[in-house]
Amino acid sequence: MRNSLKVARWEFKRNVKNKSFIISLLLTPVLFILFATLPTLLSGSGDDAEPVNVSVSDPSGIWAEQIEPYLSNADLNWETSVVTASPDEWRDGLDEDESAVYLALDEAALSEGQITYYTTEDTPDSFAGEVQLLAAPLQQLNLQNAGLSAEQMAAVTNGIQFNAEELSDSEQAADTGVNELARIIPGAFAGLILFSIVMTGMMIFQSASQEKKEKVSEIVLSSLTPSDLMQGKIIGYFWLGMLQVGVWLLIALPFVIWRFNDFPIMEYLFVPELALLIVIALIGYLLFAALFVGLGATVEDISSTSNFQGMIMMLPFSPLILIGPILSDPNGLAAQVGTYIPFTSPAVMIMRLSLLEEWPWVEIGIALAILVLSVWLVMKLAGKIFEVGILLYGKNASMGEIMKWVRS
């Protein structure tokens, strides 16, 4: 084990000093923040957006008394003014490229319920939805003019609302939305850990292949056993993955907390369920890391890998096929089958447990047992492949040769 830790430290230090690793380490969370904020910046709907100049023709004088107080609580980027000009006169007085609207509130339009507004080419499309806010106070004004009392107006304007409630034997103490966040946030954190350490684990494939091509492994194996070398690589790249997660969180978490300041993210994150989700992610890493380090020992030239080796490299992405069925039914057949398949189990379990209110502990226990057994088996097979393949030069190993090494 001491030799394995020496290899792990060497792999860790070698990659941490690698410029490409440092760039990707810092650039990934920056790109995440950029893509999260860019749509808002491009939409032009922030505080710096140009206001819409709304000119109101109000011969009856209802705007200042009835409408403006109602709109004071609305978040509208309007600059309003009452004018006496006609629409043509208003248009002639506009500046070029001005975002403006002419709103006609004459008595005939109010009584008929057909109010016309005139826009310019630079009026934002969102105004069509914002102007609908005027419907409620104008309707109330018409009812008041019709002589209805306050109680009668309330009965008319309230309308009818249908509320659905599900019969249950026990009352739910917490709000549904809060419960969903409390499940999703730990699952998203565990998913980030799984993604990061599996991606760095894929670097084991390149490391083993490069050492084999450069014949460095001959020198290393003169003082180490193949088992020590393989285990050291797995541990070293696990440290790299955890470093990557830590840096990403250090950069991105303050932004996420600021962006979603209405939700107690830290309170939802550090919950007991997070421990099990992280364990699932770590077991998944061990499975794929063993697979990649054994596969890397069979490849001397990465550019000429066989279809078989390419299919193995795609195994970590196989759970993507099940995202749709799992989201639609976390307890469905596809989700249950994916839970028991070792190569899809880690990601599928994290997704399912992030969506389910009650965890299926029997299924979790069976899936974890299968996963741990699979890790042990893949580690054993990868050790045999690595021991033979790392010293085999001249060509990439075929599937038939790999099977012979496994049976030996």
UniProtKB/TrEMBL annotation:
Coiled coil: none annotated. Residues 19-381 form the ABC-2 type transporter transmembrane domain. Keywords: Cell membrane, Membrane, Transmembrane, Transmembrane helix. It is found in: Cell membrane. It is a multi-pass membrane protein. It comes from the Bacteria. InterPro entries: ABC-2_transporter_component, ABC2_TM. This is ABC transporter permease. It comes from Jeotgalibacillus terrae.
